[in-house]
What we know:
Elements: E1 5-11, H1 15-26, E2 33-39, H2 46-50, E3 59-63, H3 70-80, E4 85-88, H4 99-110, E5 120-122, E6 128-132
Parallel strand pairs: 1-2, 1-4, 2-3
Antiparallel strand pairs: 5-6
Amino acid sequence: MDELVSIIMPSYNTAIYIAASIQSVLDQTYHNWVLLLVDDCSTDDTDAVVAPFLSDARIRYLKNDRNSGAAISRNRALREAKGRWIAFLDSDDIWLPEKLEKQIEFMQANDYHFSYTNYEEIDEESKPLNVFV
């Protein structure tokens, strides 16, 4: 069963990256998700970059009244979260298309309530650096 995943994405001045981050969510093979973007008073073009994605009803864009930091932004999104699963994605990171599907399948098969994955670092042009953390 595809249970709802609430994806938490804080944002602050990531206009040059956030479209790729959002697109990596849209490209997921697991489709039952809601993306909760919380902007922390960005002063760049984040609003304009995010706007075209808001036609997808699964994407919600929340804005802090004052700059409060990533932790406050994540906690705000957590209060809005629904469903069984929570996933965190920073607004300057991207997921591979099967990330959610594989991770949720793994947790369900093993009766896990929490898991995390490694990641590969990339440069500003999305080129792999062959650094795995």
